[in-house]
Amino acid sequence: MAKKPKTKKASQTENNANDLRARKKAAVMATSKKKEGYLLPTVIAVLVVAAVAGGYMLIGNQSGTAPAAAVQAAPQTVPPATDNRVTYPVAMFADGKARHFDFKDGEHTIRYFVLKSADGVLRAAFDACDVCWPAGKGYYQEGDVMVCRNCNRRFVSTKVNEVKGGCNPAPLNRRVEGDMLVIEVDDIRSGRGYFDFKGRA
Q1: What is the CA radius of gyration of the chain?
Q2: Within a domain: residue 1?
Q3: What is the per-residue burial (b if ≥16 Cβ within 10 Å, else e) of 129-143?
Q4: Are residues 60 and 79 in the same domain?
Q5: Domain range holding 92?
Q6: For residue 113, with 0-12 CB atoms within 10 Å meaning exposed, 13-18 middle and 19 or more buried, which class applies?
Q7: Helix, strand, or coil here: 120?
Q8: Structurally, how many domains does the chain consist of?
Q9: Are 151 and 162 within 8 A, CB to CB?
Q10: Could you say which of 68, 69, 148, 192 has the lowest number of CB atoms within 10 Å?
């Protein structure tokens, strides 16, 4: 049986329905594309932020608590004593940087430092004080001050050898003879109590 030909009205209704479906489909596709367009930049932004944050954390972990200026070289071993004294060339301290030394005395290692202070005077002190010595941490230099590694108190270079007691670096006798700095071995040994850590709290 032959199909009935569509009337003009039926064709128009079908065309309208097809147009409506096409518009809906286009709208859905456009929305989907728009979401995709927003999604990619958002993902990239999140990844960039995470990478930057991770970089800062890594740098922070590597840098540690102390500033670069506070890092000191390993203490030098005191040269063999001559005539019961230790000598150093005065020129060795011309740059104002504190030099730390280890003096071996039997089972004890007595530590001290020498520096040329801001007023041009060569000064020496044990790497310990009357208060914080049991911690065994000593001092580091930061600019023109020596800083206690245990309590973080700061002491200007011109007060080393001048002020004693409390958390001040314990003075170590020294003298200059010509172009040499001289420290008596007995004076070094007098500070052994600061480095006798047996039975410390």
Answers
A1: 39
A2: no
A3: beebbebeebbbbee
A4: no
A5: 69-195
A6: buried
A7: coil
A8: 2
A9: no
A10: 68
Query: Which of 41, 64, 87 represents a domain boundary (last residue)?
Result: 64
3 state DSSP class of 57:
helix
Within-domain flag for 132 = yes
Q: How confident is the model at residue 107 (pLDDT cuts 50, 70, 90)?
A: confident
**What's the rounded mean pLDDT across residues 162-175?**
92
CB distance 146 to 98 below 8 Å: yes
59 and 76 co-located in one domain: no
Instruction: Give the C-alpha distances (Å, rounded to integers) separating 143 from 37, 71, 146, 152.
Output: 55, 12, 8, 14
Residues 120 and 59 reside in one and the same domain: no
pLDDT at 27 over 90: no
Whether the CB-CB separation of 200 and 194 falls below 8 Å is answered with no
Q: Would residue 161 count as lying in a domain?
A: yes
Which pLDDT band, with edges at 50, 70 and 90, does 105 fall under?
Answer: confident
Does residue 116 come out as left (phi exceeding 0), alpha (psi in the -120 to 50 range) or beta? beta
Residue 166 pLDDT > 60, yes or no?
Answer: yes
Can you tell me the distance from the alpha carbon of 134 to that of 196, in angstroms, rounded to the nearest whole number?
A: 9
Domain-located, residue 147: yes
My answer on whether 53 and 92 are in the same domain is no
99, 92 in Cβ contact below 8 A? yes
Q: What is the pLDDT of residue 121?
A: 94
